[in-house]
Design goal:
Layout (H helix, E strand, L loop, with lengths): L1 E5 L16 E5 L11 E6 L2 E8 L4 E8 L4 E8 L3 E8 L2 E8 L7 E8 L15 E3 L10 E4 L7 E3 L5 E3 L7 E3 L4 E3 L5 E10 L6 E10 H9 L7 E3 L1 H8 E6 L10 E2 L2 E5 L6 E5 L2 H14 L8 H6 L6 H14 L6 E6 L5 E3 L11 E3 L3 E6 L8 E5 L2 E7 L4 E7 L1 H6 L1 E4 L1
Parallel strand pairs: 2-10, 11-18, 23-30
Antiparallel strand pairs: 1-2, 3-4, 4-5, 5-6, 7-8, 8-9, 9-11, 12-16, 13-16, 14-15, 16-17, 17-19, 20-21, 21-22, 22-26, 23-26, 24-25, 27-28, 28-29
Length: about 425
């Protein structure tokens, strides 16, 4: 069966004048879906990437074209897995790969692929707008970053399996003072869900994991192109990731990520908080706090640690709500700096779907405001703005709230 991608101008809505083939066609050996999440598409510069998958039967194809020439550059394929993807930079693609299995261990890994840029090497597709997928060789990753081993009594779910990084490399990001294009993804967020097997049924929870994009880029630069390098979890995961247990699956359509920042909803006032995983920003604010308060006791340290807020987003929301209620009325901005010396440790309380407890230390800053604000149906982040989304019976509307002031002038709390 076939999937067609029509290349049209966003200005005229007609066939794009720069596209040699205004319609790209791929012929599959399975019945492709026609709605999300089985089908998705992303554009980056001259590249267009299409994901065609059947998660319930563990089949997927990732296809990367040069849309101007109509050339299929890469095919990433599996008949025993699930996946999601995000661009690392304009030459590399990160794939979150999962292998659900009842008979053996389910497996997770991050795969990094180098996107082919040799147009002349793909002459078989120069003169046709239709490609039979089975005739195209499968591209192999240059780097495989292993993730913790899942318990045999748990299965990786096909739902809630996402990898996100925004904005797409090279795409403009707007701030209050300047417009710029980030050359690479700064932070990745991956989410997945584990449940018990038929012999050990029961929920094991949703996980949200943040991965340092700069670390991935550094690894790519030292990885040879003539093979597939494997990094065991023990050699990279603790310092380059931060793990959280989350109460439920997140809505995928909401833009949770922007650069190094991530926004999460809170069940009560103050409704949301913002994480920033930029190492330079964390280091700068932590150093400035140490200079201003060289011997000051950390009054909030025990509060958040006792609440278990370092590894559980539900507990974090409750802790922030309680903290906001008990805070002085003349303070509206709060920042919490969580360094590498304050790890998230998942699994010590038995809430774990992995063979061993997971320790992660990627530093971050947490920002929240205690001022009164309207409650919206959803929140998302874009550059220096938090966007409140409300859907009414008449029409949806958006409320933009600048957050730059919060990041630059908030009271700094070191944890």
């Amino acid at each position: 069966m076939s999937v067609h991608i029509h290349l049209r101008s966003s200005t005229t809505r007609f066939a794009h004048t720069l596209a040699r083939h205004p319609r790209l066609t791929a012929v599959f050996d399975f019945e492709p879906p026609y709605v999300w999440p089985g089908f998705s598409i992303e554009i980056m510069g001259d590249l267009v990437l299409a994901k065609v998958s059947l998660p319930q039967t563990h089949k997927y194809e990732l296809l990367v074209w040069n849309w101007k020439f109509g050339i299929l550059l890469d095919k990433i394929s599996s008949r025993k897995g699930i996946c999601d993807y995000a661009f690392l930079d304009q030459q590399h693609l990160v794939v979150l790969s999962g292998s659900p299995s009842i008979q053996s261990h389910s497996a997770l890994a991050l795969l990094i692929h180098a996107i082919s840029d040799n147009v002349s090497a793909h002459s078989y597709s120069l003169n046709t707008e239709q490609i039979r997928i089975t005739d195209v060789p499968i591209s192999q990753p240059i780097l495989c970053l292993e993730l913790p081993q899942i318990k045999k009594s748990c299965i990786l779910s096909e739902t809630g399996f996402f990898l996100q990084a925004q904005p797409t490399p090279g795409r403009a990001m707007y701030t209050t003072s300047v417009t710029f294009a980030c050359p690479h993804a700064r932070i990745f967020s991956m989410t997945f869900f584990l449940h018990g097997t038929l012999d050990n049924w029961g929920s094991r929870g949703y996980y949200r994991v943040f991965v340092d994009g700069r670390f991935l880029l550094d690894q790519v630069r030292i990885t040879p192109r003539n093979g597939s390098k494997v990094l065991p979890w023990s050699s990279w995961g603790e310092r380059a990731t931060r793990w959280f247990v989350v109460p439920e699956e997140s809505d995928h359509w909401i833009s949770w990520m922007s650069g190094s920042r991530f926004i999460t909803l809170l069940p009560h006032h103050p409704h949301y908080c913002v994480f920033d995983f930029s190492r330079p920003i964390v280091r700068r604010f932590r150093d400035s706090y140490a200079q201003l308060h060289p011997v000051a006791p950390n009054q909030d340290n025990d509060f958040f640690r006792i609440k278990g807020a370092f590894q559980d987003l539900a507990r974090l929301g409750s802790a922030i709500s309680q903290f906001s209620i008990n805070s002085p009325h003349n303070r509206q901005f709060f920042t919490v700096t969580v360094g590498e010396d304050q790890p998230s440790i998942i699994g010590t309380d038995g809430y774990l779907g992995f063979d061993e407890p997971i320790t992660s230390r990627l530093p971050y800053r947490l920002v929240f405001k205690t001022d009164e604000k309207p409650e919206h149906g959803g929140w998302q982040i874009n550059g220096d703005c938090v966007i409140g989304i409300t859907v009414s019976v008449i029409c949806p509307f958006l409320v933009y709230i600048p957050i730059k002031h919060s990041f630059s002038q908030g009271k700094c709390r070191k944890l």
